[in-house]
Amino acid sequence: MDIAKYIDHAVLKPETTEIEVKKACEEAKKYGFYSVCVNGANVAFACEQLKGTDIKVAAVIGFPLGAVTSEVKVFEAKNVIDNGAEEIDMVINIGALKGGNTEKVLNDIRSVVDVAKDRAIVKVIIETCLLTDKEKILVCKLAKKAGADFVKTSTGFNIGGAAIEDVRLMREAVGPGMGIKASGGIGDFKTALAMIEAGATRIGAGASVDIIKFKQ
């Protein structure tokens, strides 16, 4: 298995510099990662660094809280796509989900899916550490109904990250055809492989190089 092709190499800390984004892009080219995942302000720069390669640029929107309006998420989505992003990782409105406003959550996801249609794939970050199992199943089904391409475990900026049992639960909820991205706290090959075996089709990691270099 070429695990590098599963990896979105993440450089998302607020203090990230262009030097660090360039380094991440060079690492992606060296190790063959699937994509480099950046904040919106770094999308155009990352695209320039990866020009001429098949490595995608992914951008996060509504990140890391998910608590902006759908109109803001739509604007962000349009902006990062116009700047070259081919993948979008959006954070759900967690408060709306916790409050039982499923229609608001559905429409929030759908608004981004609609603007990205035929231009970028959409991954929906559900922030599993804040949800009950019932809520995880519900939001996975909402993301599928909205037409998203992936559901994703975590931002990596909250109280917990990816867990194998959550990946299994998410796979059960969405069935075999939808992508699942395990992200948050994955720092070694063994853990990344376990996530894939549990049903993940993509791995989000900042420690991507360690995952590749230390296969044990």
List the helices and strands and how they pair.
Elements: E1 7-11, H1 18-31, E2 35-38, H2 43-49, E3 56-61, H3 70-82, E4 87-91, H4 94-98, H5 102-116, E5 121-125, H6 133-146, E6 150-152, H7 164-174, E7 179-183, H8 189-198, E8 202-205, H9 208-213
Parallel strand pairs: 1-2, 1-8, 2-3, 3-4, 4-5, 5-6, 6-7, 7-8
Helix pairs in contact: 3-5, 5-6, 6-7
Entry keywords:
single chain, 216 residues, TIM Barrel
Tell me what you see in this structure.
With 216 residues, the protein is α/β, with parallel strands linked by helices. The chain has a single domain (3-213), classed as Aldolase class I (TIM Barrel, Alpha-Beta Barrel). Helix content is 44%, strand content 17%. The protein contains nine helices and eight strands. Strands 1-2-3-4-5-6-7-8 form an eight-stranded parallel beta barrel, surrounded by seven helices. Helix 6 links the parallel strand 5 and strand 6. The radius of gyration is 16 Å and the shape is globular. The relative contact order is 0.15. The mean pLDDT is 97.
Q: What is the CATH level 1 assignment?
A: Alpha Beta
Total number of distinct structural domains: 1
Q: Which topology does CATH recognise?
A: TIM Barrel
Secondary-structure arrangement, i.e. CATH architecture: Alpha-Beta Barrel
Radius of gyration: 16 Å
Classify the secondary structure makeup into a structural class.
alpha/beta
How does the major sheet shape up?
8 strands, parallel, barrel
Task: Look at the structure and give the mean pLDDT.
Answer: 97
User: DSSP strand (E) fraction?
Assistant: 15-25%
Number of strands: 8
The neighbouring-strand order within the major sheet is 1-2-3-4-5-6-7-8
Count of DSSP helices?
9
- Can you tell me the CATH superfamily? Aldolase class I
**How do the SSEs run, as a string of H and E?**
EHEHEHEHHEHEHEHEH
User: What is the end-to-end distance?
Assistant: 14 Å
Unreliable stretches (pLDDT < 50, length at least 5) are none
